[in-house]
Design a protein that fits this description.
This protein is mainly α. Helix content is about 65%, strand content about 0%.
Length: about 280
């Protein structure tokens, strides 16, 4: 197994290690307001999560944010759009597989057609021709697939490098890695280099796209950690709701379905994407 693949699978092991860390002390049972807030946060290892947030914030401040700023300054917007298109096209196999496992033929058809059209007419994904032909893009991954099957999300986690997540999404991230062609096609220095390049480019591209909202949150939020925690959940709930609300399809239910989550506003969704900035979770 290449160093690139070992690194990505190691990220999952860090998630398990986080569960062994310090736990937040539940409030007294007679303090109903505090108990309700504690349950709503669902962050039983908050001290460990906050420690990882500080680590990630330092990495972002000194490495990822400056790289994203330099990328925005040096690369014209049109060229950045081309890079984003190519990276999105690389993610099509994961997207298509998740759509199929969710029993979503229309979304799967869109994903398949987008990959074929953009890989050919769109010149390896450089141009998003499929969108102009009526095949719009959409978000999906195996974390959303597990949620569609009724798997509960579990407690909130903030993992090194990966950023905000939960046990369900962390498991889904592992499945995303397994399906990603860069994980199992070929071997050797060339494949490793391509894998590292793709991961790095995804991280910088994702971070550049949320430079302004993340800066705003860090400047104005009284508790940025709690804000990112809330926004991450809103964003994921919105993505899951979009899958469940897709009409004319059947979702394979393996677990009891949780209550339907209300959709968030477009502004909340845009801000919520900032909660994942600086993490490799967006660069599958």
């Amino acid at each position: 197994m290449s160093a690139y693949r070992i690194f990505r699978f190691t990220l999952l092991a860090l998630g398990s290690a986080a569960l062994l860390g310090g736990c937040a002390t539940p409030p007294p049972a007679d303090d109903e307001e505090a108990v309700a807030e504690y349950k709503e946060a669902d962050d039983p290892i908050e001290p460990t999560n906050r420690a990882f947030y500080v680590v990630n914030d330092s990495l972002d401040t000194y490495i990822l944010r400056p790289a994203a700023q330099a990328y925005r300054y040096a690369v014209p917007q049109l060229a950045r759009k081309v890079v984003h298109n190519v990276l999105s096209n690389f993610g099509s196999p994961v997207l298509l597989t998740a759509d199929m496992l969710q029993g979503k033929p229309r979304r799967a058809g869109d994903a398949a057609m987008r990959f074929v059209i953009n890989s050919t007419i769109g010149v390896a994904g450089i141009f998003d021709v499929a969108d102009r032909l009526g095949y719009p893009t959409h978000d999906n991954d195996f974390g959303i697939t597990l949620a569609s099957w009724g798997v509960p999300e579990g407690p909130f986690l903030f993992l090194p490098i990966l950023g905000p997540t939960n046990p369900r999404d962390a498991a889904g991230f592992g499945a995303d890695i397994a399906v990603d062609p860069f994980t199992w096609i070929g071997a050797g220095a060339t494949v490793s280099t391509l894998g590292w390049t793709k991961t790095g480019a995804n991280a910088v591209d994702s971070r550049e796209r949320v430079l302004d909202p993340v800066d705003q949150i860090k400047k104005t939020a009284l508790d940025p950690y709690a804000t990112f925690r809330s926004l991450y959940r809103q964003h994921r709930q919105s993505e899951i709701a979009a899958v469940r609300d897709d009409k004319g399809t059947t979702i394979p239910v393996w677990f009891p379905q949780p209550a339907t989550v209300p959709a968030t506003s477009p502004n909340s969704q845009a801000a919520a994407k900032a909660a994942k900035a600086g993490s490799l979770n967006e660069g599958k």
